[in-house]
Amino acid sequence: MTRLENRMITVERVLEYTKQKQENKGGLVIEHWPKGCEIRFKDVSLSYKSDQDHVLKHLNFAIKNKEKVAIVGRTGSGKTSLISTLVRLYDFEGNIFIDNVDIKTLPVDFLRTKISVVPQEPTIFSGTLRENIDPTRQHSDDDIWKAISTVNLSLFQNLDEKIDMNLSICQKQLICVCRALVQRNKIVIFDECNATVDNDTEALIQKVISEIFAEYTVIAIMHKLRYILDFDLVLVVDKGVIIESGDPASLLKKKNGMLSNLFERQ
Ligand SMILES: Nc1ncnc2c1ncn2[C@@H]1O[C@H](COP(=O)(O)OP(=O)(O)OP(=O)(O)O)[C@@H](O)[C@H]1O
């Protein structure tokens, strides 16, 4: 497994790396971190180029341990940029604390092994099912089969069979969910992964978020809002600013609120 492949699995948006500045690799590894998963953004701003406007502007918010958080907003509002800061894809201003540790003080590779990402476009490698779900060979067959059965991927008989690259997008997406399931990281990011899947797969992914990841902190960029009420907290992003936040039921009641507008339009 090359370092690049490792990174793809952790962050998935591998194409972004080619455009990225050299990161600071240093920092201190903390054993048994994170224990809990409160996440706190303190005055976080981001611009992709020094001569460009900020795409995230002075973000301040907190996510509680085990909370299920939906990030919602129009195209180009800054949702992906926001989650990219959590894995330090780009240099940002301000601080993000996870379990009271400033993530800028951690080695970036270490940080990325602690956060699972289920990507918008599923990343599947031409290898075996096992290599796709557990590329670093850290998990038992039992754990891998458990993940496979959790997402009802019944078409596989053997972990060492080659993946058919013509699997449907839903099947590929479920393999990515299995990867996150076996990693058992306390923070799991779903990057708009309900956008391209069918209704049954969308329902299944939502069930995994609510039930299987019940003990984890989940942050999901949500394009389709059908399951928005299943989340504890919704952050509505517009032009790099959080313009609404709160529990979905309250936000949906707000007349002319951004969430209720987006919801009604679907
Ligand atoms: N790698 C990049 N380099 C330069 N600008 C970028 C980059 N990625 C995003 N942007 C710009 O930053 C702004 C926010 O984009 P971002 O992808 O975070 O929004 P989004 O809400 O996730 O959009 P979408 O729903 O379309 O995925 C946009 O103006 C976008 O063009």
From TrEMBL:
Keywords: ATP-binding, Glycoprotein, Membrane, Nucleotide-binding, Repeat, Transmembrane, Transmembrane helix, Transport. It is a multi-pass membrane protein. This is ABC transporter domain-containing protein. The keyword Transmembrane applies. Residues 39-264 form the ABC transporter domain. One of its GO terms (molecular function) is ATP binding. It is found in: Membrane. The keyword rRNA processing does not apply. Pfam families: ABC_tran. PROSITE patterns: ABC_TRANSPORTER_2. One of its GO terms (cellular component) is membrane.
